[in-house]
Amino acid sequence: MTAPHAASSTPSSPSGKAPPAPDRIQVIVATDCGSTTTKAILIELVDGHYRQTQRGEAPTTVEAPFADVTLGVTNSVTELQELSGRRLIADDGTVIRRTALTDPNGCDVYISTSSAGGGLQMMVAGVVRQMTAESAKRAALGAGAIVMDTIAANDNRKPHEQIQRIRELRPDMVLLSGGTDGGDQKKVVELAELIAPAKPRPRFGGEYQLPVIYAGNKDAAPAVARVFGAGFDLSIVPNLRPTLEAENLGPARDRIHDVFLEHVMAHAPGYDKLISWADAPIMPTPGAVGDILQTIARKRGINAVGVDIGGATTDVFSVFDGVFNRTVSANLGMSYSISNVCAEATMPRIMRWVHLPMDERELRNRVKNKMIRPTTIPQSLEALVFEQAVAREALRLSYEQHKAFATTLKGVQQQRTVGDAFSQQAGGGTLVNNMKLDLLVASGGVLSHAPRMEQTALMLIDSFEPEGFTELAKDSIFMMPHLGVLASVHPDAAMEVFEKDCLIFLGTCVAPHGEGKPGKQCFSWTLSGARSAQGTMAVGEMQVLPLAHHESCEMTVSPEKGFDMGTGPGKPVTRTVRGGTVGLILDARGRAIAVPNAENERRATIQKWLTALRVYE
Amino acid sequence: MAKAFTPGLTVTARTTYRARRVLPITGDVLVARGAQVKADTVVAQTFMEGDAFPMRAANILSANPKDLPGLMLKKLGDTVAKDEPIARSKGIFGMMKTEVKSAADGVLESISDATGMVIIRGPQHPVAVQAYVSGEVIEVIAGEGVVIENAVALIQGIFGVSGETHGPIAMANTAANDILDEAHITTAMKGCVVIGGARMTAAAIKKAKTVGAAAIVSGGIDDQDLRDFLGHDIGVAVTGSERTGITLIITEGFGDVAMAARTFKLLASHAGRVASVNGATQIRAGVMRPEIVIPLDAAHHGSGGGPAAAAGGAVAGVLEIGTSVRVIRDPYFGVLGTVAALPEQPAVLGSGSRARVLEVATVDGSRITVPRANVEVIDG
Questions:
Q1: Cα–Cα distance between A347 and A335 in angstroms, integer?
Q2: Hey, are the CB atoms on B52 and A451 less than 8 Å from each other?
């Protein structure tokens, strides 16, 4: 029988090298090995400030005929070398380290993330779907995994159906949880007894034993170990739900990262070399994005949401009151799964954002043609408008899923006071609060490559419906993964580059919560400081006030009765607001945003909003 | 000379095709190296472990899990039949005994004294792998399967549904831009791979299925017709496992689009010959496109002079002046022509985006500018 592994407390650099101390780090090379492209960035200390100075990219080389991820890394870093004039690649293709800070060649640290080969794919299991299974799913998602399925004793599937499902899946690893410490052992052992005979096979061939991480009732660990016996590589870590009232996801997440490196990465082509090159553990790309967002939220003391909309999936990350959550909306994407977005959102909901006349049958064929030829790009304005309408719905659906997942712990007894008598909220309420949201960061092709910043801003506002004062930004060149792993080596450098080079600030959205009759006054506003102005907004209106990237102003918003800027209906709020490439966006459409049903009125309304923000000029 | 790269689909009159046919788990290879096989020859077979049937035996007996081993009527490894008693409670004073009956035919695999669960392992499932394409076995992979090789005409489609099948090629349309309708389908097409021109209509698909055709290959299909046929929408292009009774392959795309003339001509030149087709499509990392594989006979083996000769002068994937291309996105979707210019600098598109473009001299004599991402190379 394979002896179960004990959890490691902190992941160490797999190459065995300790990264240099932060004051010895002046030149950093970071790569992100994506499914199709390997992106490299060079970060240098310039005049006492860390700046991203060059970027390069090359096709990822994990598949035949190359089958060695380091070739793509070498090629992308070679591009950095050519652009910077600094020699970074040695004759044997490895990344050069300098021995002295005066050395004009080489770098001080090389780090990398990876999502090549489909990233990290996991199956999770827990006894109760809404409790331990959900905590297990949170741990896996937070570590950057794609959760293929969640098995629970109460998931409405019969045991043999669950076994059949487990057999069909080929996960990279399994995370099993269940029971609080000292509580019932039987149910979680039963789950183990379902998983073990199903004999799931790992995705990368059959040469290694499937890793199983057990993070359930500690008293049941010996029985679980007996059930898995030989044939599985079992790790036992502290319970991720030691009590009903507490989640302890850290040890499970750390072990997932370790197993990712030891098993999954080690069996992917060329990763043994890549691991030996890097000065810090290779992280799954979404895990690194989550880390940098948490670092930013913590350092600035803000609530933040990040979104990465890709061709196949959309990732949403949030940090509210220090609690981090990540969701992956599989099959909500803009190319491979664009057809699924149309099916889930329905065509009328997509078309509500379109101000141009379009034929629905023709559009449906176009959607399918995009699905089967995912690398094509919109050539006409009409095609762009439609794609951005689809993006709004993909983002909206992904955010809905995120809100439903990012909740307080379910199954927890709520202690109530007399004051709660009229506003009782059960456990499981969403942590996402748009009124408390301070920063919304966008990344992914349709948002990052929109021809006009105004388009990115309006897509974000229409789909996320931020309330109060919310800064909008986009990741300039999808640098967040690199900075996430850099944060583990040099947090200050990661922060500085994030603020100065990674984010392009679009501006601040000012939007009261509430509903009103179109045309009636919604709020009045005054600006002071860098700019002085004042005005009013009627319900249903949008307006942009110029306020440049490095400018900020004091702004007082006085909402009408029925509208709330965060301190209660009708109460004025004064805040410092930040400008951006778009400016200050005043949104008096209310929440939720209402689009008229009548076709002519709808198109006229959308046109009015587009004109106000100069979206398609 | 300026060059660029773009994905393209293979349409070739002659190439060497190798089919790797392996079992999902180890098993027995039934053919030897050098053997000639047909499409339906079984080349390897094995048995998959049977399904597991968990039973909460202690619960059924109202017994403590720890007591379950003592209540079992069968031992680990015993063969059991469905509904055969496998455990029995002691009852009250020897009366009112409760039994646990096996949920399936199989073998008693485990008895848990921790949870009271019993698992019956059902009978093994036979798994057989057919050759798919006729040809010669050029390699035997011990315990896994074989590699089959043959000279073939090969056409990759853009999208398909349902998996592998084979049958003689039957031309239903006489021109590449003819719509394939039910009037073109006859009872003689039973078991055939039916070739249409442009869009296949819902009525044509229905009739082809009724007459028992093996597959339809045509230029396009309307999204609504596909949804009606499948009974559901396709959200993600990962197909092949549908059980529709007929394989559908489109060579160009969705909507009213004619099959490329060269593809149609190539298929027509092989009318009556047996083709192996597979509608399985996977448009993710590791792209898989549907295919029509037509093994060539000795006469064809001698012709052509190799794949390069069949490529019609264009190197697949490379865009240069004179390369034949097809536009694959609106507003010029389906337009055919040749590359007339490859400007170095990005251009501003009608959408407002900046992108690298190329100019296409179309077959009707006009000249259009399109993003490089929106064309694919076609042979000849």
A1: 16
A2: no
CATH of the domain at B320: 2.30.30.30
Of B100, B121, B142, which one is at a domain's C-terminal end?
A: B121
ipTM of this complex: 0.84
| Structure confidence by residue, pLDDT tens digits, B231-254 | 998 888 888 888 899 999 999 999
Does any domain span residue B140?
no
Using a cut of 0.80, tell me whether the model's pTM lies above it: yes
pLDDT for res B307: 36
User: Looking at the structure, do residues A364 and A449 belong to the same domain, yes or no?
Assistant: yes
Give the CA angle between residues B138, B142, B147 to the nearest 5°: 25
Chain A environment of B377 (Cβ under 8 Å):
none
Inter-chain residue contact B223 with A189, CB threshold 8 Å: no
A353 shares a domain with A259: no
Q: CB distance from B371 to chain A under 8 Å?
A: yes
Give the pLDDT mean for B330-350: 91
Cβ–Cβ below 8 Å for B374 and A384: no
- Both A163 and A198 in a single domain? yes
| Polymer length in residues for chain A | 617
CATH assignment of the domain containing B80: 2.40.50
B171 in a structural domain: yes
CB contact under 8 A, A369 and B254: yes
User: Which of A59-73, A269-283, A493-507 is least confident?
Assistant: A59-73
Could you tell me where the beta strands, DSSP code E, fall in A421-529?
439-443, 468-475, 503-511, 513-514, 521-529
Nearest to A336 among B159, B283, B353 (CB): B283
Pairwise CB contact (< 8 Å): B353 & A378: yes
Residue from A246, A197, A192, A188 nearest A217 by CA = A188
Question: Domain end: A74, A107, A140, which one?
Answer: A107
Quick check: A74 pLDDT over 90?
A: yes
Provide the domain limits for residue A175.
119-264
Same domain, yes or no: A243 and A309: no
Res A167 pLDDT > 80? no
Place of tokens 């047909």: B38
**pLDDT at residue A307 in the model:** 95
Amino acid found at A345? A
Answer whether B255 sits within 8 Å of A164, measured CB to CB: no
Q: Which domain holds residue B68?
A: 52-121
Between CA A331 and CA A529 the distance in angstroms is 46
Nearest to B350 among A344, A361, A381 (CB): A381
pLDDT per position as a tens digit, A250-302: 899 889 988 887 777 777 788 889 989 999 988 888 888 898 999 889 989 99
Residue A427: CB atoms within 10 A of its CB come to 16
- The answer on A502 and A563 residing in a single domain is yes
Q: Give A-chain residues touching B350 at CB under 8 angstroms.
A: 379-381
A611 — contact with chain B (CB < 8 Å)?
no
List the 191-210 stretch of A: residues with Cβ below 8 A of B: 193-194, 197-199
Q: Given a cut of 60, is residue B302 above it in pLDDT?
A: no
Which pLDDT band, with edges at 50, 70 and 90, does A118 fall under? low
Name chain A contacts of B110, Cβ cutoff 8 Å: 193, 197
**How many independent structural domains does chain B possess?**
3
Give the distance from residue A178's alpha carbon to the nearest chain B alpha carbon, in angstroms.
14
- Shortest CA distance to A201 belongs to which of A159, A230, A234, A172? A172
Q: Which of A107, A137, A167 is the last residue of a domain?
A: A107
The chain A residue lying nearest B284, using CA atoms, is: A336
